């Protein structure tokens, strides 16, 4: 069902609950409407309305495989990993070692190519710039030793003379894990007092000293922690030596995001869900310069529906701030010949709960008073599937409904199934982390798509068109 987008319509008083990505669970949840497709086609990219900046090239960054293997032999290698693993609150025991296991290919590659020493550094939790036994990496060292099958030496500091001397006196092929980087204020650069909210900044001299000590530890640096690449922390941007390389995890992220952001194969479809338009203005703005089609689902679709078609949305979310941008975004889509696709029917609930009563409503019927849309309806799922299967590059960021409740997970599951089918038929399908990655995990589909990002905030900032400090800091390919 398609039609031209009508001019904006007035918005009334609307109670506000719903949807997923960044809405507190205390709020209700809802989700979106359909809009009529615009003619689609290949178009030249238009300049973004975002502030002009020099764009970082993801494909030009040096990775672990760009360095001749012989150049690792006899070298001390500092690897920034992400060992921020979940732990049992009482025992401190690691409850999921997936991030440790994910780092093994890079660690093993460096060892197998004859490194003199591997020095691993990471953060864990939020110790707020001071030592805290709750956040020690010692249990991680023990777990790493098990999965690596090789002795791991834990050092109870991460910088300073003791660490420098220990690493300098290493045995051939030794593996070290340093203590939590965030035990030092100089890693993040500042901390906030939990009681007063007062912020304390590290001095420039102290930060420089911290970074200099990290640099002394190694002959070359590898960043394999994509999830922290959007943070200008000392372990991410402070190593001064050359080369500075992407590890295998970082390399995979850069390759797939480069494919989407720098050279996507058309037709290029983006799928965006989430609670509020205002949370994703930059993301939508940036993608409207790149995509051929855009599915808007999740809670923010209701604000579009209310503003464009005066659809009754019941107790679904209405984003007052985001509503002011609806007509600008639609105008930009029209200018760039981007086809906009919204849900046209909804699975509604009488409350935000897994045992809520359900009913299916169409645009014409609207969401009843006191109810909220919690999932995409069957007709919407079919429209989404058609768009997905007719695309060659697909970027998915945001579920179609409240997938955490099985009664309202059908839309997200159908979208996932369509993405898997598209991937099997040769499309590139990338999931941008966050709740969408959780959907993939829920249905055991992480390995059935081209790439499921581990990035979270880093993925989002890349998709918004921002430069990531941790990527910008990597050496350039010659």
Automatic annotation (TrEMBL):
Residues binding substrate, per UniProt: 82-84, 123-126
GO molecular function, one term: ATP binding
InterPro entries attached to this UniProt entry: Phosphoglycerate_kinase (IPR001576), Phosphoglycerate_kinase_CS (IPR015911), Phosphoglycerate_kinase_N (IPR015824), Phosphoglycerate_kinase_sf (IPR036043)
A Pfam family reported for this protein in Swiss-Prot or TrEMBL: PGK
Pathway assignment: Carbohydrate degradation; glycolysis; pyruvate from D-glyceraldehyde 3-phosphate: step 2/5
Keywords: ATP-binding, Glycolysis, Kinase, Magnesium, Metal-binding, Nucleotide-binding, Transferase
Enzyme class name: transferase
Stretch list, region Disordered: 1-63
Comp. bias (Polar residues): 24-50
Residues that, per the record, bind ATP: 280, 373, 404, 433-436
GO (cellular component) term, any one: cytosol
GO BP: any one term: gluconeogenesis
Cofactor: Mg(2+)
SUPFAM superfamilies, A to Z: Phosphoglycerate kinase
PROSITE patterns linked to this entry: PGLYCERATE_KINASE
UniProt xrefs under HAMAP family: Phosphoglyc_kinase
Subunit structure as annotated in this protein's UniProt entry: Monomer.
Family: Belongs to the phosphoglycerate kinase family.
Protein name: Phosphoglycerate kinase
Name of the coding gene: PGK1_2
């Amino acid at each position: 069902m398609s039609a031209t987008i009508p001019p904006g319509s007035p918005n009334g008083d609307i109670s506000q609950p719903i949807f997923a990505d960044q809405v507190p669970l205390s709020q209700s949840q809802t989700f979106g409407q359909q809009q009529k497709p615009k003619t689609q086609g290949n178009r030249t990219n238009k300049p973004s309305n975002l502030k002009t900046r020099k764009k970082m090239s993801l494909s030009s960054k040096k990775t672990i495989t760009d360095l001749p293997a012989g150049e690792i032999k006899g070298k001390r290698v500092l690897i920034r990993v992400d060992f921020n693993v979940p732990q049992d609150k009482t025992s401190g025991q690691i409850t999921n070692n997936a991030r440790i296991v994910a780092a093994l290919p890079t660690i093993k590659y460096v060892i197998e190519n004859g490194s003199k020493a591997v020095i691993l550094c990471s953060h864990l939790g939020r110790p707020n710039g001071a030592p805290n036994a709750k956040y020690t990496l010692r249990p991680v060292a023990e777990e790493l030793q098990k999965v690596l099958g090789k002795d791991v030496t834990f050092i109870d500091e991460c910088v300073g003379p003791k660490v420098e001397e220990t690493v300098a006196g290493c045995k051939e092929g030794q593996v070290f894990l340093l203590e939590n980087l965030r035990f030092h204020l100089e890693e993040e650069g500042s901390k906030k007092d939990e009681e007063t909210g007062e912020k304390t900044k590290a001095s420039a001299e102290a930060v420089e000293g911290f970074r200099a000590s990290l640099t002394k530890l190694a002959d070359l640096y590898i960043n394999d922690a994509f999830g922290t690449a959007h943070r200008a922390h000392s372990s991410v941007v402070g190593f001064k030596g050359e080369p500075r390389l992407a590890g295998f995890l970082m390399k995979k992220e850069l390759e797939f995001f480069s494919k989407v952001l720098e050279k996507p194969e058309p037709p290029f479809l983006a799928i965006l869900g989430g609670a509020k338009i205002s949370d994703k203005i930059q993301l939508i703005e940036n993608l409207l310069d790149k995509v051929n089609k855009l599915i808007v689902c999740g809670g923010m679709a209701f604000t579009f529906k209310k503003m464009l078609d005066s659809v009754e949305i019941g107790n679904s979310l209405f984003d007052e701030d985001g509503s002011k941008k609806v007509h600008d975004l639609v105008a930009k889509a029209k200018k760039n010949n981007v086809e906009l696709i919204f849900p046209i029917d909804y699975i509604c609930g009488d409350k935000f709960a897994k045992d809520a009563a359900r009913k299916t409503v169409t645009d014409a019927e609207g969401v009843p008073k006191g109810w909220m849309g919690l999932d995409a309806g069957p007709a919407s799922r079919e429209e989404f599937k058609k768009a997905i299967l007719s695309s060659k590059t697909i970027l998915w960021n945001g579920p179609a409904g409240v997938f955490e409740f099985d009664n309202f997970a059908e839309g997200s599951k159908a979208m996932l199934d369509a993405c898997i089918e598209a991937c099997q038929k040769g499309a590139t399908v990338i999931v941008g982390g966050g709740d969408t990655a959780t959907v993939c995990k829920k249905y055991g589909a992480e390995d059935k798509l081209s790439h499921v990002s581990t990035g979270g905030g880093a993925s989002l900032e890349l998709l918004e068109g921002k430069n990531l400090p941790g990527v910008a800091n990597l050496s350039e390919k010659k």
